Amino acid sequence: PKSSAVVDAAAQAGDENVLVVAKAPAPADPAEPRADTVAVAHVPDGGGPVTVLAFPLDLEINRPPCETWDAATATYRSDPVQAEARTQLASALDLGGPRCITRVVQQLSGLAITKYVGLDLAAVPAMTDAVGGAEVCVPRPVLDGVLGPVVPDPGKNRLAGVRVADFVQAGDVEGEPSPEYGRIERQQSVLAAVLDSAVSGTALLDVGRLMALRPSLSEAVLTDGAGLDQVLALAMTLRRLDADGVRYAAVPTAERNSRGNAVLRDTDAAALFAA
Known about the structure:
275 residues, alpha+beta, 6-stranded mixed beta sheet, two-stranded antiparallel sheet, 35% helix, 29% strand
């Protein structure tokens, strides 16, 4: 929080900037999860509209030296990951874990990242099943070019099991402006719905439900806190991501360069981050 990369810290005091990162099994090696989406949920101090800002995984960055992240044990190793110029944003998470991706996003944006939430998409079905499914509202059918009709009917739908797994990973959905934008919106929607189920109404009094949720939630969600209690505290912020009026924006980029990486449009990006 005291990083020199944070721009105008006084103006950001009180704001919540939650870095929400999802990972999915790699097609070549399902046992080796890779970054899937990276976004910052910006919640202004004192209320106001929530903005979810998407960062493309192939955004070209100069990655700083980072600690080596062992995803299997969710711990850091003593051997460092060397700095690398002109590499992709996804490598910061894949090699350096939460600390490295947080550091890079702060350096890119100047935003003070206040919380971190990692979502393991492979564990989402068990998490949603533990609360009896996730109720999401879709404005249009979710028809994926690869997976087929994931959610054939618009409106409120309760998803669980295979359906929710397809819902959060679909990347070729008809009518969506970009694959990353759509996945981020759907992933936030499911996470918000699950957490909402855990904190709304009398759910917090249902000890059995919370105990059933605890192991699956710990498998699916990684936070900068200490387990379920910290996640439930975050829920009061993240549940708003499933509400009407949430604004989604993408970091402005130019056409891909000769290395196949998206390139930040510096002037436009600086104006967006400042806003």
